[in-house]
Design a protein that fits this description.
802 residues, alpha+beta, 6-stranded antiparallel sheet, 6-stranded mixed barrel, 26 helices, 50% helix, transmembrane helix, MacB_PCD
């Protein structure tokens, strides 16, 4: 009596709070199974939300560390052909845009051009290091961007031709430490001599400006094979630094006249047009990259999934509290009889919610530490655990989430208990004909989420399997790719090819300019009968290309060694013939640096991802600067083959030997989709585990409450099957209703996702229904296991005290 009075009328708020916390702690310990499920469920939901918040925060913080970032813009270009959009927001353009824009347009303080990232070997003394991120950059690079230079002067390290700046890691690999790097002379691909003038700090993960070395842009002026004018060489990205008083909108208004003078005036006669615009540095990552649309879509999906998992966790907590309240209504009634007010009872529910949520946050923090490496692997995101907990956005999100969870669940439970009839008909989430909706809609919501996620995962799996197994038009099995990196290697490529061809387990070898898997470069060509050039994919390949890739020739003939007319001719694919409306293309001509006769038509094959439709293609026999790859088709024993090719390589090339298999490169193309599917599968597993843990807990409480009823039914002759049916039928009905709701949701989500693929499966009803079947089966097994265990209890043990 005294204890209740003290709680009802606490002398101090601190004393009252401590008493409430003690009671909340006793209640948590009273039913360890339910409390354990509750805490694991909540902490999993919180961990998921916080990890995804960290992921999203990292994506939104790309390139925000540049001091002049608000004034830096990337030039973007829209290409129009015959009034149709042929490319939007493309950043690669000619080299002359930057210097001419600064000279003619107001408001531009400086510009910096960067080439596409390339790979090359850096040779120093007797060692060679392959650098994949080799970029040519103007001397203004460090004036625009805030990358920290560790050695060298920012204004001069890229000023002269032949200057190179290395990242700290690259310099350390070559010279041992960064202090020994500056002033050293190295060679690129054992050919071009450059001098190390600086060392830059390794670039952070949250930037789209990626490189391992920077070479002075003026070095390109010394290469006669490089185009730096307005016409051709669309491989340069131009960054503009605007004056402090300059206005982006004013500059964009001046760009149409500028483009007309330099390009569009001449192209208008052919129906072509190029429009230029400015892309803010802060918006590049999420709005102007080739994968920005997919990234934003994934962010939205991850946000939705995280919130849904959190909802499932909260539903478990609320349902458990409602279910446990059945055994606590007497306690509440006694407190009310003794004078406890509704506000004091509500404070009790808020205190329990506060304590449960607090413990769940502690467990979630431990989960973040242990799961963050796996999460980074799934998402490809490079944030670290310290970075997660130093993230102000994440800390704010944690605080808001804590308040919302504690206050929201506390309010719901206090509202529920204040409206419940504690003396007559308490509501249990899984019982009562008159309570088919109250409490049960929360369980059904869990099932809807789980079924939708499982269905989407299954459809993604079917699509990825489809693109991996769909015929590409060539045989990619038992094919080895050997890159011909380096000038000296290219000079002896014919010798290397001949030696490999003579190996016993090699059926054919071909030299090509690009591996026809991830896309092929486009160039301008003018077909016979037309006055304007059109962009067509161009692949350079030798006489053994068709045999090695096992392609089919539809008409004409392929290149024949030693025939000059053939070597000057073109092979086209059937898509190009259809595009040009040519029923008999052989003998027609296509112009590029002279007239070239079509000598054959090859059957269409996929040379890019199945996200894209097969485009027009020209195969030539005259590479611009030699072939870049050897393609080796073998019959057996790849280990022996690699050993033999490596021996041949070492006898002819000073550079290290490299290789990969064509089928593995093909699989790598869909790494992003596979990673996303794995993430979704993991979230699906979490959602169904949380849902079933909640159902298991509720069924356990329900059975505990109905043990006497079950025992009486057994005494009266009910079988175990009848008892299982009696206790699980209503729950399985919820799963069926949830499946009907989840079907249209899953179908819509997958139809949107599949739009990214030019070649895709059709979503059938059974694919979506698979999620409902899985949840129904697992739910039935979970419930049946618990019910059967209860059904086999000896009724005498339950009823002997009655």
């Amino acid at each position: 009596m005294k204890r209740i009075k003290e709680i009802r009328n606490p002398r101090t708020s601190l004393y009252g709070l401590s008493e409430y916390l003690k009671i909340a702690g006793r209640i948590l310990l009273r039913n360890k199974l339910i409390s354990g499920i509750n805490l694991i469920s909540l902490s999993t939901g919180i961990c998921t939300v916080l990890l995804i918040t960290a992921f999203i925060s990292n994506e939104y913080n790309f390139d925000t560390f540049h001091e002049k970032g608000s004034r830096i813009f990337r030039a973007g270009f829209d290409y129009m052909s015959q009034g149709k959009l042929d490319g939007q927001g493309v950043s690669e353009f000619s080299a002359s845009f930057g210097p001419d824009a600064k000279a003619e347009l107001p408001g531009i303080e400086e510009f910096c051009r960067l080439t596409n990232s390339d790979e090359s070997y850096i040779n120093y003394k007797n060692q060679s290091l392959k650098v994949k991120g080799m970029v040519y950059a103007d001397s203004t690079f460090f004036k625009l961007f805030s990358f920290k230079l560790l050695r060298g002067t920012p204004s001069s390290v890229l000023r002269e031709p032949g200057n190179i700046v290395l990242t700290a890691t690259t310099a350390t690999k070559i010279f041992g430490n960064i202090d020994k790097a500056v002033g050293k002379i190295v060679k690129l691909d054992d050919k071009k001599t450059v001098i190390v003038t600086g060392v830059v700090e390794d670039i952070p993960a949250n930037t789209d400006i990626r490189y391992e070395s920077l070479i002075s842009f003026s070095t390109l002026n010394t290469d006669s094979t490089i185009f730096l004018g307005w016409r051709g060489g669309y491989r340069y990205t131009t960054w503009l630094l605007l004056d402090k008083a300059a206005n982006k909108e004013d500059l964009e208004k001046a760009l149409p006249a500028f483009m007309w003078r330099h390009l569009n005036k001449q192209d208008a006669a052919f129906g072509d047009k190029t429009e230029a615009g400015l892309q803010p540095l802060s918006e590049i990552h999420l709005n102007h990259n080739s994968d920005s649309a997919v990234l934003k879509r994934n962010i939205r999906i991850f946000c939705t999934i995280a919130l849904l998992i959190l909802v499932i966790s909260c539903v478990n907590y609320i349902n458990f509290s409602m279910a446990q309240s059945v055994t606590r209504f007497k306690e509440i009634g006694i407190r009310r009889v003794l004078g406890a007010e509704n506000m004091q009872l509500r404070i009790r529910w808020f205190t329990e919610a506060l304590l449960t949520t607090g413990i769940a946050f502690v467990i979630a923090a431990a989960l973040i530490f242990s799961l963050s490496p796996l999460f980074r692997q799934f998402t490809g995101n490079h944030f670290s655990v310290p970075a997660i907990f130093n993230n102000s956005v994440l800390l704010l999100a944690s605080a808001i989430l804590f308040v919302l969870l504690a206050a929201g669940t506390g309010f719901y439970l206090s509202f529920y208990h204040s409206g419940a009839n504690i003396l007559s008909n308490p509501v249990f989430p899984l019982s009562g004909i008159g309570n088919r909706f109250r409490g049960r809609w929360l369980i059904m919501l869990q099932f809807i989420v789980s079924i939708t996620l499982i269905s989407c995962t299954f459809v993604m799996y079917m699509q990825i399997r489809f693109v991996k197994t769909r015929p590409t038009g060539f045989d990619r099995e038992k094919v080895l790719i050997v890159p011909l990196t380096g000038h000296k290697t290219n000079e002896v490529s014919a010798v290397i090819k001949h030696s490999i061809s003579n190996l016993s387990n090699v059926s054919s070898v071909s030299a090509i300019s690009e591996v026809p898997v991830e896309g092929i470069t486009r160039n301008g060509f003018t077909p016979e009968g037309q006055t304007q050039a059109m962009m067509i994919h161009q692949l350079d390949a030798d006489e053994d290309f068709l045999k090695t890739f096992q392609l089919h020739l539809l008409s004409g003939h392929y290149f024949r060694q030693g025939t000059n007319m053939d070597q000057d001719g073109y092979i086209i694919n059937e898509t190009l013939a259809k595009t040009l409306g040519w029923k008999d293309p052989v003998g027609k001509t296509i112009n590029r640096d002279g007239s070239h006769k079509i000598i054959g038509v090859v059957k269409d094959f996929h040379f890019a991802s199945l996200r894209e439709r097969i485009g027009p293609l020209i195969i030539t026999n005259q590479p611009w600067q030699g072939y870049d790859y050897l393609v080796v088709r073998y019959t057996s024993n790849p280990s022996l083959l690699i050993s033999e090719i490596e021996s041949i390589w070492k006898n002819n090339s000073p550079l290290p030997f490299e290789y990969w298999f064509l089928d593995s490169q093909f699989d790598w193309m869909y790494k992003g989709e596979q990673r996303f599917m794995t993430m979704l599968a993991a979230f699906s597993a979490i959602s169904i585990a949380l849902s079933l843990s909640g159902v298991f807990g509720l069924v356990s409480l329900s059975i505990q409450r109905r043990l006497k009823e079950i025992s009486i039914r057994k005494v009266l002759g009910a079988s175990v099957t009848e008892i299982v049916k009696l206790t699980s039928s209503s729950l399985l009905l919820l799963v069926l209703i949830a499946s009907l709701i989840a079907f249209p949701a899953g179908s819509y989500l997958m139809s949107v996702w599949l739009q990214d693929f030019a070649y895709r499966i059709s979503v059938s009803w059974w694919m979506i229904a698979s999620g409902g079947f899985v949840v129904l089966l697992v739910t039935f097994l979970t419930v049946s296991t618990r019910v059967i265990k209860a059904a086999f209890i000896n009724p005498a043990e339950i009823l002997r005290n009655e």
